[in-house]
Amino acid sequence: MQLKDIATNLIKFNRIATLLGVGIAVSIGIPALAAVSRTNVKPNTSNSSRYITGGTEDNGRNTLYICSTKVDGEYTPGKYYPPNQRCYVAWGGKEYSYTSPIRFYITNSWTWGNFPGYIVGNNLAGGTENNGKNTLYFCRAKVDGEYTPGKYYPPNKTYYVPWGGREYQYKKNFQILFVN
Question: Is there a smaller number of Cβ atoms within 10 Å at the N or the C end of the chain?
Answer without folding.
Answer: N
